[in-house]
Every structure is written in C-alpha cells, then in structure tokens.
Amino acid sequence: MKLNSISTLIVSICFLASVHAGNEWMEYPGGFEYKSKNLSYKIGNDGTFNNLKDADGILLVKNVYIMGDYVFQGEKHDTRLFQTACKGGPLKVSGGGNIYQIHKEGYIGSKIYEKAVRFSENASISSDKIIMECEVEYLVELSSKRCTPFWTIINIPVETFRNKGYGTKEKNGKSTLSVFPELYSGKATVASRLKELIIVQGNYHLTIRSNDEDTFFLISDPRSYDAKSDVLRIDIGKTLPYINTPRTFAPGAKFKWSFEISFTEIKD
C-alpha cells in the first residue's frame, strides 16, 4: 500500500476506533482549543481551523476551511459556498492528551439554496500533525465551471513566510525549490499540480501534503487581485477532467478528499 493511502486510512481508522472503543464524543458549540508543546490553534464550531501557531507563538496557518461555488442563470447573488457560513450541529471531539478526533457535519447554502450541500469533516490531530478528510454531498442540482467544484483553502500568512524558501513535489515526481516573494511578483500562481509543499520555518519543516492521486493542489498569491492581502493561499480538493462547459451535479453527487499538515523537527 502506498504511503499516501496509508495516511488517508489512518484518519478513518482513528475515527472509527474511537467510536468502537467507546470513547465519549463531547460537543463543543463554542469551538475547541488545542494546545501541545509544539502547536496551538482554535477549531471553530463550524469546523474551521484558525490561528495555528508554533511553540514560539509564530503564526503558521491563518485558517483552513471548505469552499465551493456554482453557476446560476437567474437572480444575481453570491454563488460562493463557505463552510464559515454553515448550519448544523455542534463540533464533536473525542480523545485526550495530545491526540484527538474531530467531527463536524452540517449544511452550506446561499441566498437561493438554503441547504445546497451537506458536508462532513473528520480530522485526527496530534502534537505534530493534522490529518483531515472532507466530504461534500449535493442536495440540489447545481452546475460548476470548475474542475474542482469544492475544495479546502489553507491560508498561510505572508508576514511569516515572505522571503522564506520552500520546496515542492509534483504528482509526476518532479521537485523544485523556490522562495515566497516579499511583494507581489506579478505571478498569480506560485506553484500548481502539486503533491507536497515543504517550508523551512525555524528548526522544523512545515509540510502540506495531498493524500489522494486525483487532487487539485495549487499555491496562489491573492495580492494579484488584493494589494492588501496578508496571506498566500493553498487550494486542495478533488479534481475532475477538464471540460469547456459547465458540469451539472445531481442531488446525491459526492466529493471526497484528504490532506495533512505536519511539523517535523530538523535534526543535525
């Protein structure tokens, strides 16, 4: 079995094991704060991860959330779908010490479609890693021009990573080294078609890795359209073959994807 398949399997095993072992699921309608010797962050009641910092209080990840959109021919409205505006039950947490399982499910909608999709998020978190599985199910018929109709956004702060070196690994095995620009360089897409991103921060590596073969993984610079943006953006989601016309999804259509964020100490 490939390493990425094993990583994906870990999430499901941990999640199911906590249920079958009788571990109690606690509800956290006010969100859940995680803190270990290496990391601290807040998980909102909506399931979003926010303000991930290292042991020195340096902000590494501003936020992590699901987003999607659709095309609509009628009344003009915001067709973007954000996890941050979801409705549903409270965040559920199981575990203890530095190891927890996180479960969130709910509905994401818009002005026209109150419940456009149902989503679920299962995460396994520890002192040096976050492994996350996401699923979105359509509840109404919607169309999208994108090859990736739903995806996860990971925003990392410009202030922390400007002029920092990073390495990437593509799906075809190609590796590259580069530097995050201090100012917008005129290039909206920093890197694409990725499998893995590795950034050196202090005495450890910050790694973001896709756990699926058919995943869209892109780094972009929002300063290309917003000069005041304080983040670099990473998009990860299930991808479909390209077509030049909108693709329609019937109720019941599902998308799943998995990724991980890890922190590895650099040893001499």
Query: How many strand elements?
Result: 21
CATH architecture annotation name: Distorted Sandwich
The tally of structural domains comes to 1
Q: What is the string of helix and strand elements?
A: HEEEEEEEEEEEEHEEEEEEEEE
From the spread of the alpha carbons, the general shape counts as: globular
Could you describe the 3D structure shown?
It contains 2 helices and 21 strands. Helix content is 8%, strand content 51%. By secondary structure, the chain is mainly beta. The chain has a single domain, classed as Beta-galactosidase, Chain A, domain 5. The protein is globular and about 60 Å long. Strand 3 and strand 4 form a beta hairpin. The protein has helices spanning 3-20, 158-161, and strands spanning 26-28, 32-35, 39-43, 49-54, 59-69, 80-82, 91-96, 99-108, 117-126, 129-138, 142-144, 150-157, 165-170, 175-179, 189-191, 194-201, 204-210, 215-220, 231-238, 247-249, 254-265. The longest helix is centred in the N-terminal third of the chain and has 18 residues, at 3-20. The two termini are 31 Å apart. It has a 10-stranded antiparallel β-sheet, covered by helices on one side. Strands 2, 3, 4, 5, 6, 12, 15, 18 and 19 form a 9-stranded antiparallel β-sheet that branches. The chain has a two-stranded antiparallel ribbon with strand order 11-20.
